[in-house]
Amino acid sequence: MDVLRVVNLGVEVQGRRILENVNLYIRSGETYALFGPNGSGKSTLLNAIVGNPVYKITSGRIIFKRKDVTDLPTDERIKMGMGIAFQVPPKIEGVKLIDVLRYCAKIGGYKEKDIFELAKRLKMLDHLYRPVNKGFSGGEIKRSELLQIMLMKPDFVMLDEPDSGVDLENISLIGEVMRELLQRDVPKKDRKSSGIVITHQGHILDYVDADYGMVLHKGKIACIGDSKDILRQIRKFGYEGCVERCLREI
Amino acid sequence: MSERDLASKEEIEKFREVGIELDLSKRSATFLQEDQFVKTYTSIFEGLEMMSVKDALKKYDWLKDYLWKVLRKDQDDYTKEVATSEDFNGYFIRALPGEKIDIPVEACLYLKRALKQKVHNIIIAEEGSELNIISGCTAHPSAVGMHIGVSEFFVKKNAKLTFTMIHGWNRKIEVRPRSAALVEEGGTFISNYVLLSPVMSVQMYPTAYVEKEGKAIFSSVIVALEGCKVDSGSRAVLRGEKASAEIISRTVSKGGEVIARGHIVGEAPAVKGHLECKGLILSEKGLIHAIPELEAKHPNVELSHEAAVGKIAEEEIFYLMTRGISRDEAISAIVRGFLEIEIKGLPEVLKQAIDQAISSVEKQLF
Ligand SMILES: Nc1ncnc2c1ncn2[C@@H]1O[C@H](COP(=O)(O)OP(=O)(O)O)[C@@H](O)[C@H]1O
Ligand SMILES: [Mg+2]
C-alpha cells in the first residue's frame, strides 16, 4: 500500500523558490535515506510534508494514506500517523519538556509511566522539567526529539539529521531507537512503519538499513537508488559528482 | 467563627480566586476588611501580630512613627486623600524579631458597597524574621468605585518578607495602590503581583529602597482584557553598597492597554540590578508599552535590562502542533507557560495560589 505520494511539489520560503517539481512515492514498510548538500532543501521537504505554514506550497499535492492532505492543518496530519523529529526545534520558554511529552503520549496511547521509562532510556530524565529545548546541547536536542516521536508512535516517520552532532557513544542508542521506530527488525511483509531519514554521516545507516537513498539537488530529487551505493558515490565524488553520474545513467 | 459567618458562598468563592482561603489550617492568620470595616482577624501564631491598623495605633504609641515614613502624604491626590481622611482602615502585620513564620498570613480587602475604599497597611518584618503574606483584593460584582491602598513595608536587618498580591476586581473599579518598602541591611523583600481578571483601571508604581546588601525582587504577571487599562511598574532604589534588585514582568494584552514600567536606580558602589520586561499581545486591539529604565548614579554599578514585546512565535505554535495538539491548544499552552514565571524563593502554597488564579481565569483568556 502506498503511504506517501508527493506529486509535482513546489515550495517557497519567504518568496524564494526552494523546491521545484519534487515527486516521491513511498510504500508501507519502506525507509528512504535523503541526502543532499547544505541548503538543498531537505528540511524544507519534510516541513512541507508535515504542513509548516512558513513553507508555502506553490504547486503540486501531498497525498498521505490516499488522502489529499495538502491543505490539512498539521495536527490533523499527526493524528493520521505522521511524525517528525526536527533538525533544529524552537525552544519555548515556560513549556516544559514533560508537557510536550504528555501531548505526544496522548497521540501514541502511552501512559504516564511509559513517558518516564522512555525518558530514562533516552537519558532525558534530568531534562523533563526544563523549558523544552532551552539550553539543551546538540545531542540532548536529538535525544529529546527522538523521545517525543517515540511517544507519538507514528507509522510515517520523518527524522531530520537525527545523528548530527551526536557522539559515538550515543550514536548506537539513537541508532537502536530509530531501528525500532522504523520497525527494521520486523519482516518486510509485516512491517507497518515507513519513513524518511535525512543524514550526512551515514554511520546511522549501519543501524538503519534504508531501503532506498535519494539525493536532493537544486530543488529537485536528482537520484534514487540503493542507499549504500549512493552514500559511497557521495563520499567518492561529492554531491555534484554523484548527481552527475545519476543524471548520466538515466 | 466559621467562614460562613464571614461571607456568603459566592463571596467565599471570589475570595478563593484571589488566594484567600479563610481556613486556618492553611494560613497562620486571616484578616478580612469589607469596605472600611474589619470583619475579623485571627492570629494563631506567637511571634506574629495581626490586627487592624486602627487598633494597632491605639495599642502601640510608637506605630505613628511608621505611618507615612516611606511614602509621602503629598505624593499625589490619592495619598493626600488617605492622609487627610479619618475614614480609613487597613491591616497591621508584624513578625517579631527572629520569628520565622512559614505558613502565609492572608489579608483580604473586599470592596462591596463603598464608593471609595481607603486603606492604609503597615507591614513590619522585625530583625532576622521571615514572613509570608498573601494579599487578595476583590470586589462584589455589583460594586462601583475606587480602591486606594497605601502600604508601607519595613524589612528590618536580615529579615525576609514575601508579599504576594492577587487582584480580582470588576470592570467598574479603579485601583490605586501606593506602596513602598524600606529594606534594611541584609534584608530581602520579595513582591509578587498578579492581575488576571478585568478591572477598569490600575495605576501603581511600588518602590523599594534597599540598603547595604539588601535585596528586592519584584515579579508581576498581568493580563489586560478588552476595556482594561493597567499602568503598573516596580522600582528599586539601591541605596547601600552591594544592594541588588531583580524586576521581572510578564504582560499579556487581550484587547486591553498595559504600560509595563520598571526602574532601577543604582546609587551606591557594587550594586546590581536586572530588569526583565516581556509582553505578549494576543489581539489587534490591545496595546503594550514597555518602559524599562536604568539609572546609574555611581560608576561602580551593574544594571541591565531586557525587554521584548510581540505576538506568539508561529514557529512555537507549529512545533506543538506537530505533537498532536490543535492551534488553539498550542496557543493556550504557550500563554500559560509565559505567565507561569518561576518566582525565586516563593513558598509552594503561594505558587499554588497563583496557579489557581491563572486557572480560574483561563477560560476568559483563550
Ligand atoms: N524558515 C526559513 N526561513 C528562511 N529561509 C529558509 C527557512 N528554511 C529554509 N530556508 C532556506 O531554504 C533553503 C533550504 O534550506 P533547508 O531546507 O533547511 O536545507 P537543508 O535542510 O537541505 O540544509 C536554504 O537556502 C535556507 O536558507
Ligand atoms: Mg536541514
Summarize the structure in words.
The complex is a heterodimer of chains A (250) and B (366). Chain A is of the alpha/beta class. Chain A has one domain: Rossmann fold (3-Layer(aba) Sandwich), CATH 3.40.50. Helices cover 36% and strands 27% of the residues of chain A. In chain A, the strands form two sheets. Chain A has a six-stranded mixed sheet, with helices on both faces. Chain A has a four-stranded antiparallel sheet with strand order 2-1-4-5. The radius of gyration of chain A is 18 Å and the shape is globular. Chain A starts with a strand and ends with a helix. The relative contact order of chain A is 0.17. The model of chain A has no long low-confidence stretch (mean pLDDT 94). Chain B is α/β, with parallel strands linked by helices and 366 residues long. Chain B folds into two domains: 3-313, no CATH class; 314-366, no CATH class. Chain B contains seven helices and 20 strands. Chain B has helices at 3-6, 9-17, 53-59, 77-83, 314-321, 327-339, 348-365, and strands at 29-34, 37-43, 48-52, 91-95, 100-111, 116-125, 130-139, 145-155, 160-168, 173-183, 188-195, 201-204, 207-210, 215-225, 229-238, 244-254, 257-266, 271-281, 287-296, 301-310. In chain B, helix 5 (314-321) packs across helix 6. The longest helix of chain B is centred in the last third of the chain and has 18 residues, at 348-365. The two termini of chain B are 40 Å apart. At the A-B interface, helix 2 and helix 3 of A face helix 5 and helix 6 of B. The complex binds adenosine-5'-diphosphate and magnesium ion. Magnesium ion binds at residues 42-43, 87, 160 of chain A.
